[in-house]
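# step 3/5: fold
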Amino acid sequence: MVEKEIDHQAYKYRIYPTNRQKQYIEMCIRSCWWFYRYVLHNREDDYKSAKAEYAREILSWYTGNRAYHPYWMGLPPKENKQPPIAHEFYPRGVPLRHRGKGEWTTYTLLKIVRKKYPFMEEIPAVVLQNVLDRVDSAFQNFFRSGTGYPKYPKERNYRSIVWTGGSDSIRLDESSGRIRLSKFPGSLKVVYHRPITGSVKRAIISKDGLGQYYVSLVCEYDSEQTPTEPERVVGIDMNIKAIDESSRSFIALSDGSKINIPRFYSLIGDKLAKVQKKQAKCERGSAEYHKFARIVSHIYEDRNNKQDNWLNVLTYDLSSKYDFVVLEDMNLAKFHEKRDKPGEAANMELAADRGSRKAWTEAPFGKFRQQLTYKMKNRVILVDPKNTSKMCNSCGQLNESLSLSDREWTCSKCGVHHDRDTNAAINILNRGKFELNNRDKQHAGASPAHGIRTGSSVLPKDR
């Protein structure tokens, strides 16, 4: 039986606006940046008042993890009033949920701002409403994780504006290579290098560091989901510790093959160093200084384009070759955290790890997992990476003495000789197959958009 469900696809195209259109885009970006900071300030005041109310009404009744509110002590409430939150236990330290009024008044705030500042009337309402959504999304992410409080963006980092609403505000004509947006002066010239599937629901105009403009179209279409038996399943071990000057192994597959990554950063190192030396000798802010700065940006853009192309080819091959892909569920950001060691010991360790950290930065594991998940969706399975390298895939024996420098080892129980990365990939595959066999019971009726996740997202000290 073939099931249909709504899916989304994004297309990014280069656009060539006229001088008048460039001025309008710059005005919209700057105004949205200002409005983002304005709304964030408003929400911040509401958050502080809600936090004070939370501490006064809820936390004041707690000592440690024990509540002394009349409700929790079983006493009748005074004046027939129930406690502020009577259906849930809130110990100290929980991430505070926003209970202020800003959540309900942001759209009223938009109306006030457009009346108070006439230049805001030139910007479509849907573009400003997207700014409200950005601020709300930043706060919701903060409430869910308890970390990463929303920050005031710098003007140079705010480079995109969004139109929503479908055909009412976005009209495109692929035959003439044009796109029209609500309140936008004239039609934009677009280079359609690939056809569009589905109906356009969102258009994002962005500007890069070189001053080039792009439009990203988010389209919605009905996709046919055919139930697939897990016939072609592969486990992938990301060789984070093996990336160095001598070894360029990026990932290892459970079939024994390994894929090396090109040296994208190293290939531009000499050329980049020469240009940056010339730039350093120029007076800051002069025409020559900006000339070499643009050359540096072009070098980085060329490197990023080559890396993205290589990743897209690799992830496309994996998504077309296999029905399911099993990956490790690791927090990759932990590899780049600074160690809190004082004095000379920290400097020695930093010098020793400098080559490894540079290699980790050159290997885009996070982008690889993101692109693969985007292409395969719920056909990517994330499993716990604990002991995948130490466990023998034949008998299950753990080799506790295995160190990170040991790339091959022999099992003391069954005598099988293992390649460290291939053995880890096979163990990852076995855990993924176990999840596939039990997913109907554990995930009945669910189709997660970001893969089946098992275990906790941890970074083991020694894989």
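# step 4/5: annotate
The CA atoms of residues 130 and 162 lie 7 Å apart.
# step 5/5: archive (pending)
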